[in-house]
Every structure is written in C-alpha cells, then in structure tokens.
Specification:
The protein has about 180 residues and is α/β, with parallel strands linked by helices. The chain has seven helices and six strands.
C-alpha cells in the first residue's frame, strides 16, 4: 500500500515472491514497473493504481489477501490511522504480517536542530501535530508509536517488533 516505485517490495519479488505494488501515483508505478523489468522480476510484479481512500472506504477495487502487507511511509499522511490500519490488517491472511513504517516524531526535532541547525525550528516542531513533507510538499502528521501500536492492536495485530529506521542517516546533511 503506497508502494510507490517499488523500492521496498521489489526485493521480495527478487526472492521469488509474487508482489502487488499499489499506489495512486502513475509516475511512481511506472518507475516500479521499469525497475521490475530491469531486475528480471516483472513476471512476479503486478502494479495497481488505486487511491487508498477509495479502498479504505470500501468504494475501490476488491483486493485478495496477502502473506505480507507493507505500508511504509503512508500512515502519517492518513486522516484516519485506525481505519487505515484495520483495512491493512484485513488484507493480511491469518498468520500474515503487516509492516508499517512512519517517521519518528523525535527525529523531526533532531533533524531541525542537528541537520538544519535550526534551534528555533526544533523548538517550534516540538509540540506541533504536523510537519511539512519536502518530498510531497504536504503536511505530515507526527504519529507517536503508541498511537500506531494501539491501532494495530485494535485491528487484531500483535506488535512483535519495533525498530528505529533511518534515525542516524536522516541526520546526515549530505543527501548524495
């Protein structure tokens, strides 16, 4: 869900799994398709253009269930995180895995203070419910792990692991 250019899911296809990459951005899905072709896994990759809002509200195309459902860097753009998580959990087969990833709100403060050397900006974002996404030029909710974990528990999921992803790399100012 929100699979974009397939960077998170195409390695699964390379390992022999069938993969569906769903996103609403046609350009990103075209990148995913080209990447699948260049990696020789296009026969195991299906790209599906759909709006997650339509799917969550039940007005979109029906989807099968999956062994693994990835929803990376999407939840912080969603107005109703619990509804989105319930939808994701419903896509996972019994015993399946739901993997969600969202920015750590503490990193917003650290990034402003350390990467941008903006103490005033760090202080301003400290209690702010949103930050601005440079990537999509859009506000992002600052989701605390407890909110996401509660949504997962309410959807019948058991949180088995929690990781700090990109906590160091996001502080390096050299994007190259």
């Amino acid at each position: 869900m929100g699979g974009g250019d397939g960077s998170d899911s195409l390695p699964l296809a390379a390992d022999g799994h069938d993969v569906t990459v769903l996103d609403f951005a046609e350009e990103l899905l075209e990148q995913a398709q080209r990447a699948a072709e260049s990696r020789g896994v296009a026969d195991r990759v299906r790209v599906l253009r759909a709006d997650l809002d339509d799917l969550v509200s039940g007005t979109g195309e029906g989807l099968p269930t999956y062994d693994v459902v990835l929803c990376h860097n999407v939840l912080h753009y969603r107005a109703d995180v619990p509804a989105t998580v319930r939808f994701l959990a419903g896509l996972a087969r019994p015993g399946g895995v739901v993997s969600v990833m969202a920015p750590n709100p503490a990193m917003d403060v650290l990034s402003a203070a350390v990467r941008r050397q903006d103490a005033a900006g760090a202080l301003a974002v400290l209690d702010s419910p949103t930050v601005h996404s440079q990537t999509f030029d859009h506000p992002m909710r600052r989701l605390e792990e407890g909110e996401v974990e509660q949504a997962l528990a309410d959807a019948g999921c058991t949180v088995e692991h929690r990781f700090g992803i990109r906590c160091v790399m996001d502080l390096i100012a050299d994007d190259e």
